[in-house]
Amino acid sequence: MRMRIDVVTIFPEFFGVLDVSLLGKARQAELVETHVHDLRDYAAFRADGTADVHRTVDDAPFGGGAGMVMKPDVWGKALDDVLKPTGVLVVPSPAGVPFTQALAQELSAAPQLVFACGRYEGIDARVAEHYANDGYRVVEASLGDYVLNGGEVAAVAMIEAITRLIPGFMGNAQSIVEESHSDGLLEYPSYTRPASWRGLDVPDVLLSGHHAKIAEWRHEQQLSRTRERRPDLLPPE
Ligand code: ADE
């Protein structure tokens, strides 16, 4: 079954990037279809039914504070229109759960993913609550411990991580099994010709043709790299 991805954003032109790169391949293979929607198209009328020529999508936060909050009524109209009964709502947010390879793997099986890209200080919290109450799976996920200006860059990264896991997408399934994070460790270092470059030699074991030794060396490299760079990924000693 083909996955459907919808993106709701105030910057639809940003998603032209989906036409290139890996995702372009997935679309050519008809494994995924993408639809990008301009949030402002749902802001032509205010909650009271009067016309809003400015197509306002944000307002000041209750309780005070910096920045603006995206309006729940506008998001509600957009998501009512776009979300299918089996859709999963994904809200990129620096306050979300970590977006991991395991989460990408899970989401790659969804019939529809709807990415709600917030700007400013985020989307009124009742939007996620409402769709969760309605029975939808709602995933607020963060790309990492830093703050982007909005969800768009995060959504593109998530879409790339998810679509390459759709069965049939990658030419070489083994390269997915061996890559960083699929076994909880960082990937081992890779080398190609020439065997000597600028005084740096490829480790001898890789030229030995001894497959068991190569596998053992690579596993050791995974462990030492992970210990050094990402000790948080290892079980406590
Ligand atoms: N929006 C802003 N910052 C973000 C982050 N780190 N991850 C996901 N969405 C975001």
TrEMBL record:
Molecular functions per Gene Ontology: tRNA (guanine(37)-N1)-methyltransferase activity
Gene Ontology, cellular component aspect: cytosol
Keywords: Cytoplasm, Methyltransferase, S-adenosyl-L-methionine, Transferase, tRNA processing
Domain of life: Bacteria
Gene3D superfamilies according to UniProt: 3.40.1280.10, tRNA(m1g37)methyltransferase, domain 2 (1.10.1270.20)
Keyword Transferase: yes
Enzyme class: transferase
Entry coiled-coil feature ranges: none
Keyword Ribosomal protein belongs to the record: no
One BP term from GO: tRNA N1-guanine methylation
CDD domains registered for this protein in UniProt: TrmD-like
Predominant cellular place of this UniProt entry's protein: cytoplasm
Pfam families attached to this UniProt entry: tRNA_m1G_MT (PF01746)
Catalytic activity: guanosine(37) in tRNA + S-adenosyl-L-methionine = N(1)-methylguanosine(37) in tRNA + S-adenosyl-L-homocysteine + H(+)
Domain tRNA methyltransferase TRMD/TRM10-type residue range list: 3-234
InterPro entries, alphabetized: Alpha/beta_knot_MTases (IPR029028), tRNA_m1G_MeTrfase_C_sf (IPR023148), tRNA_m1G_MeTrfase_TrmD (IPR002649), tRNA_m1G_MTases_N (IPR029026), tRNA_MeTrfase_TRMD/TRM10 (IPR016009)
Cited NCBIfam families: PRK00026.1 (NF000648), trmD (TIGR00088)
Assembly: Homodimer.
Protein name per its UniProtKB record: tRNA (guanine-N(1)-)-methyltransferase
Source species: Demequina mangrovi
Lineage, broadest ranks: Bacteria, Bacillati, Actinomycetota, Actinomycetes, Micrococcales
